[in-house]
Amino acid sequence: MSIETELSREMRFVVSENQAGLRLDVFLAQADESFSRSQIKNAIEEGDVTMNGKPPKVSQHLKVGDVVEIHLEAAIDALAIPQDIPLSIVYEDASIIVINKPAGMVVHPAPGNPDNTLVNALLFHCHDLSGIGGVLRPGIVHRLDKETSGLIVAAKSDEAHRSLSAQFEKHEVHKKYVTLVWGNVKGQSGEILLPVGRHPVDRKKMSTRSRRGKDALTLWKVRERYGLATLLDVEIKTGRTHQIRVHLTERGYPLIGDMVYGNPSKLQTVKDAALKAYLKLFQRQALHAAQLSFLHPQSGERVVFTAPIPEDMGNLRALFRAVAPVPGGNTGLQNWKDKLR
Length: 341
Known about the structure:
About 20% of the residues lie in helices and about 25% in strands. The strands form three sheets. Strands 5, 6, 7, 8, 9, 12, 13, 14 and 15 form a nine-stranded mixed β-sheet that branches. The protein has helices at about 25-30, 35-45, 120-125, 160-170, 245-250, 275-280, 310-325, 335-340, and strands at about 1-5, 10-15, 50, 65-75, 90, 95-100, 150-155, 175-180, 190-195, 195-200, 205, 215-225, 230-235, 285-295, 300-305. The protein is an alpha+beta fold.
């Protein structure tokens, strides 16, 4: 039995006598031919499959009467189309293209975002993107959340795609971020080692309390303190979905502007009118992918790319500095008040 909506598919199967003994992944592949083996494996590992109400293993064998339920996001049938969307290109050659993605841009088409994505822009700009990622996300080997700005690399050849994918798998790609979080972070640096997986109740969120979470390591270092907030340099050693947002929220320091994991009540602690007004306008998580490093697919040499803090985060940092000045970071508060009028 299946229930299909515009955005998702909920399917429920009961194991019969002739299906008993099958591995779970084999059973699902036979139950619905529209499932690919990789899709099934990912769904199980992400916690989107349950067996008798509990998270199973990919290789688990079935018994008569077992109830298997699977939740899948709906696929988009249409091909991604080229669109003339401006791109901030940091670097490009025959193998790769590195983009400084603005906040608000989705990486690839998905339910609710069929176009105006980075993929649509890349298809217009490049005529030789790798096809390994599939028709909806050619060349894409990693992602950034819609409201996260910063560096992302796309492959322009299948060889480059395979090389970059292998580097991500082996954690050889180094990613550093800058973020503004609520609170005066204790300590000058540290690490967060907590598993991250699908939230046990809210499927749109990730959690450190997932029953099938994967190990995740986040390193952080304080760059500036403002009392109410802290500017952090963050490096992730794993690339779990929403990892930085989940980890820092778990530690009690949610990202400023985070509409999913943030704490709206923090705004009430801000007394300065200019800062408060800007924070109300700041409708995205204050997170920027500032540095990206990997081995070039052709030369094998390590390349490093950087992207400066974007204007919106820079403005926010300047306002915090003005309210709670830091050495070398004084900014005239009145100038900001005038600008916000």
